[in-house]
Automatic annotation (TrEMBL):
Organism: Butyricicoccus pullicaecorum
Family membership: Belongs to the FldB/FldC dehydratase alpha/beta subunit family.
NCBIfam families registered for this protein in UniProt: double_cubane (NF040772)
Key words of the record: Iron, Iron-sulfur, Metal-binding
Cofactor(s), names only, from the UniProt record: [4Fe-4S] cluster
Name recorded for this polypeptide: 2-hydroxyglutaryl-CoA dehydratase
Molecular function (Gene Ontology), one example: iron-sulfur cluster binding
Superkingdom, natural source: Bacteria
One Pfam family it belongs to: HGD-D
Length: 383
C-alpha cells in the first residue's frame, strides 16, 4: 500500500478527501498519469489502462515554496503547479505514476526538468507551427514515442483497437461537454458562466469517463428543462460576454464571478478549459495515430505561430453566442497570449465590431479592486 504524505493531518478537509480517494484508487492497482495540457493525447493514456489527471494548479498557496527554485516573475500556473509537487500537497501529483509534459512554453519546458527530479516526467516536443510541411509528421512521431514510453513504463502493449475504443469514449465526452457549454447560446442565459467553468473543472476529477458524461448530461437536461419552462420566449438585456486567453480557473472568482455579479452573463469560453479542444473531434475512420496527430495539432493555443484558426473560432463564437463583448485574460509572464492579444483585439474590434478588454493578472488578490473597477467601466461602456 502507498503511504500518505507525512504532513497529511495538517491538510484542509477537502484536500484530505482528495488524497484518500486517490489512495483508494492506487490501492486497487489503478494506473494514474498526470498531465498539464490539452495537447496531451489522453486517448493513449486510457488505452494504457490508466486514467489521466490534470495537474495544473490554480491557487497562490504553494507559490512561495516554488519561488525557492523558480523566478518570481514567472507564470503563476507554472509556479503553483511546481509548488504543489514540491510540497507533496497535491493528491493528484502525489499519486501519479508518471507525468507527461509538453513544450507549450519556455517556462513549463524548464520547470519539467525540475519536476523530473521528483517524479518520472516525459516531455512531448510540440512543433512550433502547424503549417510547416513537416509539422504533422513530426507530431505524429511524438505520439508514437509517447505510446512506446507508456508501453515501456507499464510493461504492456497498447493495441490499435484499445486506442480506437479510447477515441470513441473521448469523442462522446467531447460531444457531451460541448452540448453543456452550448447552453450559453440560449437567451436569457440558462446558467452562469461561473457554474459552467466550475462544473467542467470539477467533472475532470470524476475518474470514470462514462460517469462523468452521465453527470454532465443530467445537468444539461435539468438546465434546459428549467429554461424552457420558466424563461423561454423572453429576452435578457444583460451584456453577453466571451472570455478568452489563458486558463482562467485561478482567477475565476475575481473576474468571471465578479463581472456576472455586476450584471453581465459570461456565455462562452475560448480557453484550454472551454470550447477550444472540444470543437473538433478525432476522426474515428482514419488510422489511429494519424487521427490523433491531426486532432491534437489543431488546437488553437497561442503557442502556435501563426494561429489564424483561433481568430476564426472566436468570430464564430461571437456570432453563435450573440456576444456583446470579449474579455481576454492574460496570466502574468505568458508572452505568447500577451503578444497575440494585439491580434485578438484588432480582430474583435475591427472585424467583429465588438468591445474588448484585456486583463493581465496572477493568482493573488492584490489587484481585485483594480480589476473590479475596470470590469465596471467595461460594462458601462457596453450600456
Amino acid at each position: 500500500m502507498i503511504a500518505l504524505p507525512k504532513n497529511f493531518e495538517t491538510y484542509p478537509e477537502a484536500r484530505k478527501a482528495g488524497f484518500l480517494r486517490m489512495k483508494a484508487l492506487k490501492d486497487q492497482g489503478q494506473r494514474v498519469v498526470g498531465v498539464f495540457c490539452s495537447f496531451v493525447p489522453t486517448e493513449l493514456i486510457y488505452a494504457a489502462g490508466a486514467i489521466p489527471i490534470g495537474l495544473c494548479a490554480f491557487t497562490e498557496e504553494p507559490i512561495p515554496a516554488a519561488e525557492a527554485h523558480l523566478p518570481r516573475n514567472l507564470c503563476p500556473l507554472i509556479k503553483a503547479s511546481y509548488g504543489f509537487a514540491l510540497t507533496d500537497t497535491c493528491p493528484y501529483f502525489y499519486f501519479s505514476d508518471f507525468i507527461i509534459g509538453e513544450t507549450t512554453c519556455d517556462g513549463k519546458r524548464k520547470m519539467f526538468e525540475l519536476l523530473d527530479e521528483i517524479k518520472p516526467t516525459y516531455v512531448m516536443q510540440l512543433p512550433p507551427s502547424k503549417v510547416a510541411p513537416h509539422a504533422l509528421e513530426s507530431w505524429k512521431a511524438e505520439m508514437v514515442r509517447l505510446r512506446r514510453q507508456l508501453e515501456e513504463f507499464y510493461d504492456i502493449e497498447i493495441t490499435d483497437e484499445a486506442i480506437r475504443e479510447a477515441i470513441r469514449r473521448k469523442n462522446r465526452e467531447r460531444d457531451v461537454m460541448l452540448r453543456f457549454m452550448e447552453l450559453g447560446k440560449l437567451n436569457p442565459a440558462a446558467l452562469s458562466g461561473y457554474e459552467i467553468g466550475t462544473r467542467l473543472d470539477a467533472s475532470a476529477f470524476s475518474f470514470d469517463l462514462e460517469e462523468r458524461c452521465n453527470e454532465i448530461e443530467a445537468r444539461t437536461r435539468e438546465v434546459l428543462e428549467s429554461w424552457e419552462k420558466n424563461v423561454k420566449g423572453t429576452e435578457s438585456r444583460r451584456p453577453r460576454l466571451l472570455v478568452t486567453g489563458c486558463p482562467n480557473t485561478g482567477v475565476r472568482d475575481k473576474i468571471i464571478k465578479a463581472v456576472e455579479e455586476m450584471g453581465a452573463d459570461v456565455v462562452c469560453f475560448d480557453a484550454c478549459n472551454g470550447l477550444r479542444d472540444k470543437l473538433r473531434k478525432v476522426d474515428e475512420n482514419k488510422p489511429v495515430m494519424d487521427a490523433l496527430a491531426e486532432k491534437y495539432l489543431d488546437i488553437t493555443c497561442s503557442v502556435m505561430s501563426p494561429n489564424p484558426q483561433r481568430l476564426t473560432d472566436i468570430g464564430d463564437m461571437i456570432d453563435q453566442y450573440q456576444v456583446d463583448g470579449v474579455i481576454e485574460i492574460i496570466l502574468q509572464a505568458c508572452h505568447t497570449y500577451n503578444i497575440e492579444a494585439f491580434e485578438v483585439k484588432r480582430y474583435v474590434t475591427e472585424q467583429k465590431g465588438k468591445a474588448y478588454l484585456c486583463l493581465e493578472t496572477d493568482y493573488s488578490q492584490a489587484d481585485k479592486g483594480q480589476i473590479a473597477t475596470r470590469l465596471g467601466a467595461f460594462l458601462e461602456m457596453l450600456g
